[in-house]
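notes to self, project folder thing:

trying the whole complex as one job this time. last attempt i did each chain seperately and stitching them together was a nightmare. two parts in total, labels are on each line so i dont mix them up again. if this works i'll redo the older ones the same way
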Amino acid sequence: RKEVEQDPGPFNVPEGATVAFNCTYSNSASQSFFWYRQDCRKEPKLLMSVYSSGNEDGRFTAQLNRASQYISLLIRDSKLSDSATYLCVVNSMEYGNKLVFGAGTILRVKS
Amino acid sequence: SAVISQKPSRDICQRGTSLTIQCQVDSQVTMMFWYRQQPGQSLTLIATANQGSEATYESGFVIDKFPISRPNLTFSTLTVSNMSPEDSSIYLCSVLGQGAGEQYFGPGTRLTVT
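result (full assembly):
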């Protein structure tokens, strides 16, 4: 079983749609959780951290369910510029500073 | 955030040769990381490079194949040795960011082995 598993993509949505990505992780000792964004042929960049209480950044909402070992990312009012691959990432003390990346979910927003 | 550059940005190499990739950071950092991203897949950590000590390799990666140097706090190199087509990949270096678990990545080196 992979350490971090994500929804298979790609997600093809119209502009203005709301889209949700899911992610599960296998290591219950995982402590930190993130969503990274990777544009085509570019390096990954941190989109947002995910906190236990859930957190929102503009159109983006991230949630964490530790009991189910589940992370989600909700994007409201999708823009063409949201088209990218979204990577679910976890970290734990036993990993040191190592990040474990999911395979990513491709989002394509179309006009 | 740190500004990271990598050289070369891309290369096409013949089987059996070696390529050294350079990673330069605009500030001093303790830890640097080297990742591989194979076509259509996510990032896999190759090793962690600490200044003044041997790199720490992840399972499946060995020093003979991927020797790493870390001569100072702003620079590191990764060599891909005795290349085969299976080594065709994007290689990225990264450094720790401000927040827990946050990392900043270089633009990557796209390697094709023929």
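what i see at first glance: The radius of gyration of chain A is 13 Å.
need to look closer tmrw
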